[in-house]
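Supplementary Note 3. Input sequence used for the single-chain structure prediction.
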Amino acid sequence: MTRRCSLLLRRAKDDARGATLVEFGFVAPIFCLLLVGVMDVGHTLYMRAVLQGVVQKAARDSGLENGSESTRQAEIDARIHDSVVKLHNGANVDITRRYYRTFEKASAATAESFTDTNANGTCDNGEPYQDDNNNNVWDSDGGDAGQGAAKDVVVYTADVSYPRIIPLQNFIPSYPDIVHVKAVTVMANQPFGEQSQYAAPTVRNCPV
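The predicted structure, written as discrete structure tokens, is reproduced below.
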């Protein structure tokens, strides 16, 4: 009986049948996770590429003479929304326009000067600031909201957020379940008129 058991154990030890299946059982989950991860990253990159393309087209259309009309802007923004929804119907699209007088000012995006009495880096608590564009608001980027007018330089930004198409957060702890994609382009409005000028800067106070 002992010899038979010893023989069976020796045969089992030397038998490699089924080893591949066991090894595949260990490797398969990791391989599948990597595969779906690549698919998720690929979708995000494709969304970013499409978004950048439609944003550049939208910025060019907005720079035309009728681009400053609110109805025309709504039509242009709707195109971006439609293009994004085709890739993910649960996406949220937030579009902003900020305009400046020159490309240099748009690139610098320097905040309007203010006296930071509480040293928190933000104009608040009634601190005085210089309203360079006279819009009654302290602008942290020195720009003004909207499309502007002739020859103004516009920073056109589209922020897109949507739930992941593959719920990787269920398998990877702390993995974000929302994807955020941003596209930014800078264009100058066509010179369909003379560029308007701001009045002399006004000293105001930030909200308390």
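Residues 19-62 form the longest helix (44 residues). The mean pLDDT is 89.
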